[in-house]
Amino acid sequence: MSKPPVDIDPSTPVVVFRADGYCSLGIVRTLGRLGVKVYCISHIPDEPAMRSRYCAGTFNWDFDTSPADDSVQFLLDVAQKIGKKAILLPTFDTRSLFVDTYRALLSTAFLLPQPSPGAVAGLYSKRSMYELCKEVGVPTPDTIFPDSVEQAMRDGPGLEFPLLIKGIDADRLMHRTGRRAAVVHHPAELREAYLSLDEPGRNNLALQAFIPHGAEDSWILGAYFDSNGDCRFAMTGKKLRQTPIGGGLTTLGRCTPCESMVDTICSVAKAVGYRGILDACFLYDKRDTSWKLLDINPRPGANFRLFVDKTGLDVVRALYLDLTNQRLPPADPAWGRTWMVEDKDFDAVGEYASNGSITSVAWLKSLFVVSERAYFAFDDLGPSSGFATTFGRRLLRGAINKLHA
């Protein structure tokens, strides 16, 4: 295990604002290993982060079904129960937007980054992010924002097929339809997909030029910007495997340097006055040899533990040191480091195997050279034991379904 980059005072607690999934588990572990007390909020019992030996306590609350004012009061009550000012760390875009909306009030009880007004919402919206990219001159795929299927049919072909239909508010589209995007190859397919994803009374769809790419062209980035807007940590990497293959969650990544991506994210963050952790996705476009910015998430990315330097520093530790006024050293990137999400990678391998791009032998070999896994850790077996049970049941159900097919 890496030694802390500096002597850290771990006395400031942290509250993970919705402790769902492996991102939250990564937060609990990276700070808990330093001696920080990390508390988890979720309405789902027995989340992996809550089973971690590094979880100091849990709070039960469902933000999705609770009025905003009640949720704010709940967070203020959590701060009072903890007994000292803690860092509040949201893990989902919608939670980041919630914290941004009530930042002034929540800052009376929690330590929070203080981005410029509108910065978080501006990066979250695919439309405002696109307009910002054009304004500051950073590469991004050409995109239009039709207000009707008629306009989509009239203007979409100007971008040339195939096209990507995506949500301006991606979470809203996912919640409504179970899909974040669709690739269409001709006008009839465009009309059908647009109508199936369109939300009456709300313009939430964008048409984006599709960038031809292979499995090696998907890139990701994690960065932290301090109270002055200076980038204090930035690392880049490649998606070695993802699900779905065409553009989805990273299941296996490798830290790989790309200064162009760092320059892009710094330009965008500076333009909006962003402070805090950013996660971003890029595609390498072979046609003009540029890395084009696809998405920015104003929060820790689910894959943030890929980006760990030689001393153990990551974006979450960087934020902790900065907000508690401790020395934040320069990052010393560990290029070549790899990180895997065990269950998601199993799904991805099935997709890659079906098109002949990986063999079972190659996959098995890759399991033994991973620097870190999302669930399994020798010093924290609780989350991985629960994960193993759940994953085992899933495999058994799949085998039974095949037998009955």
Protein model, in words:
The strands form three sheets. The chain has a seven-stranded mixed beta sheet with strand order 14-13-10-11-12-15-16. A five-stranded parallel beta sheet has the order 3-2-1-4-5, with helices on both faces. A four-stranded antiparallel beta sheet has the order 6-9-7-8, with helices on both faces. It is globular, with a radius of gyration of 21 Å. A hairpin with a 5-residue loop joins strand 10 (218-225) and strand 11 (231-243). 37% of the residues lie in helices and 21% in strands. It has helices spanning 21-32, 68-82, 93-101, 103-106, 119-124, 126-136, 149-155, 170-177, 187-197, 259-272, 315-323, 342-354, 360-367, 381-404; strands at 14-17, 38-41, 55-59, 86-90, 110-111, 143-144, 163-167, 181-184, 205-209, 218-225, 231-243, 249-255, 276-285, 290-297, 338-340, 372-373. It is an alpha/beta fold and 405 residues long.
